[in-house]
Design a protein that fits this description.
By secondary structure, this protein is mainly alpha-helical. It contains 6 helices and no strands.
C-alpha cells in the first residue's frame, strides 16, 4: 500500500519544500525592503539635521551685532567714529571714471576691417550681388 502512494507522498513533500522555500524568500525580500527603507530614512534624517544646523548657524549669525553692523556699513554707508573707510573697486569701474587719451578714443571709434564692414559702404544692389554671387562689383 505504501508503494502505491509513494509517488504522491514525494510530490507532496516537494510541494511543501517549495512552499517553505517561497516563504523564506518572501520573508527575506520583505526584510530587505524594510531595511533599505530604514537606511534611506536614516540618511535623510542625517541630511536634514545637517541642514538644520547650517540654518541655525546662519540665523544666529544674522542676529549678531557684527552682521547688523556689516549690513549698515554696506548698504547705508554708516561707519563708526574711529573707523577710516577704504573703498576698493574693480578695474572696469575705475576705467569708467578715468579720462581716456585721444589715441585710445580714435582707436575705439575706427572701424575694424571685417567681412561685415566690407558691405557697409555698398549699395543694396551691390550687396545683393555680393551675397548671391560672392562678387565685389564696387
Amino acid at each position: 500500500m505504501i508503494k502505491k502512494h509513494y509517488p504522491y507522498i514525494i510530490f507532496i513533500i516537494i510541494l511543501i519544500m517549495f512552499y517553505i522555500l517561497y516563504s523564506i524568500i518572501e520573508y527575506k525580500y520583505k526584510e530587505y525592503k524594510i531595511n533599505s527603507h530604514i537606511e534611506y530614512i536614516s540618511n535623510l534624517n542625517k541630511n536634514i539635521q545637517k541642514q538644520i544646523k547650517i540654518a541655525e548657524d546662519l540665523i544666529s549669525y544674522k542676529k549678531s551685532k557684527a552682521y547688523k553692523n556689516k549690513i549698515l556699513k554696506q548698504d547705508l554707508g554708516y561707519k563708526n567714529k574711529w573707523e577710516k573707510v577704504l573703498t576698493l573697486i574693480n578695474e572696469d569701474k575705475y576705467n569708467k571714471y578715468v579720462k581716456k587719451s585721444t589715441a585710445e578714443i580714435i582707436n575705439e571709434t575706427t572701424p575694424k576691417k571685417t567681412k561685415e564692414d566690407l558691405t557697409y559702404w555698398m549699395t543694396n544692389y551691390q550687396k545683393w550681388i555680393y551675397f548671391l554671387f560672392k562678387k565685389d562689383i564696387r
